[in-house]
Amino acid sequence: MNTRKEITIYDIAKALNISAATVSRGLKDHPAIKKETKKKIVETAQQMGYQHNIFASSLRKKKTNTIGVVVPHLNSYFMSSVIAGIEKVANQAGYNLLISQSLESVQKELTNVTTMYNSRVDGLLVSLSGETQDIEHFDFLFKKGIPLIFFDRIFKSSHCSSIVIDNFQAGHDATHHLLEQGCRRIVHISGSLRSNVYADRHAGYRAALNDYQVAYDPELVIIGIRGGQLGIKAAQQILDMKILPDGIFTANDTAAIACMSELRRAGLRIPQDIAIIGFNDDPISSLIEPLLSSVYYPGYEMGELAASTLIKQLNDKSGNSQRTIVLRHEVVVRESSLKKVTH
């Protein structure tokens, strides 16, 4: 059996005929150690295959400088933007990231969080799964005093802060735009209403209809799994309707684009027959034909703010204060929703 011996600072010290304390300081770039000595220590450590034991060091310091990030999916532009924002701020502050996805499963979410806890992360940033109904599975973190911040998909708690946009107002604004264009039979395509983001957008949709005294019709609300498959399924349901809608508000751009493509393939004109507005303002929104109207959701900014808020808590040792930070959103109007063309 081939077992590799772990190289220690004592092995390096013996090879160079210096003290282990000098080796330790040299590897940490201590100013008291001469440059020539530091260079010899680093070169010898590399040659001998020395590996710094981060875990042991973390046990001594009771800090790993690692932040855990749990998201529902990694394969979306929005979530990629959020993680990029988190990474920028975390790295600048000297933190590394452990990233995992729940794939919309509350059980996998619990497994991921437990794994990160066992990896001794200093704090956690979490966007909840579509199945999550409560946050009891985070209680052990609160009891241990490990800072936790929810972002995007949240659950309000007295133990931690949340970072969101006003999804109710964003849903209202998107629907209001379609109503301004003369739409009165508006389909809403949504992810699971168990999730705060989709529930709030749906509530905003209903409120906007009420503002225009348009009756809410549950038959016009199509709920399913997020993404392109939802858009295709929705288009098929729309084409089967006895009376076609004149507007569609979709709770994400991927579904909006897939739905729009299917409807155009069936011979419908966008926006003349059906106006469409999406959500997130993914880059593809301004590349497809017709250009897709959407709601701008500041993912990168959300990630930066989530990371900086968590790191501030870690540095201040102030405990888990509770507050909700609401970021701006904006309706970005393009060709797909403009029924009324001004000349």
Structure characterization notes:
The chain has 343 residues and is an alpha/beta fold. It has 3 domains: 44 residues, 434 Repressor (Amino-terminal Domain); 134 residues, Rossmann fold (3-Layer(aba) Sandwich); 138 residues, Response regulator (Rossmann fold, 3-Layer(aba) Sandwich), CATH 3.40.50. The longest helix is centred in the last third of the chain and has 18 residues.
Provide the gyration radius in Å.
26 Å
Helix content: 40-55%
| Largest beta sheet: strand ordering | 2-1-3-4-5-11
Mean model confidence by pLDDT: 89
**What is the top-level CATH class of the largest domain?**
Alpha Beta
Major sheet attributes: 6 strands, parallel
Shape: elongated
Structural class call reads alpha/beta
In the CATH hierarchy, the third-tier topology of the largest domain is known as Rossmann fold
The number of E-state strands comes to 12
In DSSP terms, counting alpha (H) and pi (I) runs of 4 or more, how many helices?
Answer: 12
Order of helices and strands: HHHHEHEHEHEEHEHEHEHEEHEE
- The CATH architecture name of the largest domain reads 3-Layer(aba) Sandwich
Tags for this entry?
6-stranded parallel β-sheet; elongated; 343 residues; 12 strands; 4-stranded parallel β-sheet; Rossmann fold; 12 helices; alpha/beta
